[in-house]
Amino acid sequence: MGFQYAILCVASVVLTPTVMITVAGGSDAYLSWAVFAALVISGLTTAIQARRLGRIGAGYILVMGSTSAFLAVSVSAIEQGGPGMLATLIIASSLIQFVLAGRMALLRKIFTPTVAGTVLMLIPMTLAPLILNKLADVPADASPAAAPVTAGVTLLLTILLPLRFSGALRLWAPAIGIVAGCLTAGLGFGIYDTARSPKPPGSACRSSRIPGWISTSGPSSGPSCRPSSW
Fold first, then answer.
1. pTM, rounded to two decimals
2. Distance between CA atoms of 64 and 67, rounded to whole angstroms?
3. Exposure winner among 23, 121, 199, 211, fewest CB in 10 A?
4. What pLDDT, on a 0 to 100 scale, did the predictor assign at position 60?
């Protein structure tokens, strides 16, 4: 059961940066590095949460992973300023989150469950344009129904499985939906690129340069070895 839960968590950690970079038109090298970095950071922060270092950490297993809350603005950052701008925004926003976390007790009257719930419901609305644009990202010779049918199969299984079944199968619903969508795309319409063989995530640090922290001259197509100067 623990292994199944870990696999499901890894899938969610990998999926968010993959969607973000592919939608933004990032390079394969940047995608490989981002997935590797997401896995490493997720593993380290989850271990800190479980073991607890002083006042840092919850003291129990709390999986830390990628979130889709900032997906839309992250795509815009990559499109406008490249990986450097995205890294800069991540660092800046993390400082604000540290400040908010230390004053959260004082903000409970502002961030009520109603406010938080409304914000969570608005997140899918900000992602909708990005997802709809991907429906047109198919080979020119593909059937017009390829993208809608593939997306529909994935979405239906992801939604219906948790509603119709209980137990572990509900947790596997997103993974089953993705696999079914890939099979539909590959076997049904021939639009799944099986010739594309990504490098192992660990090779990203050896073969790719690490994205700089600051974008100083417009969009950057690839990572840089050292952090950019402030």
1. 0.67
2. 9
3. 121
4. 81
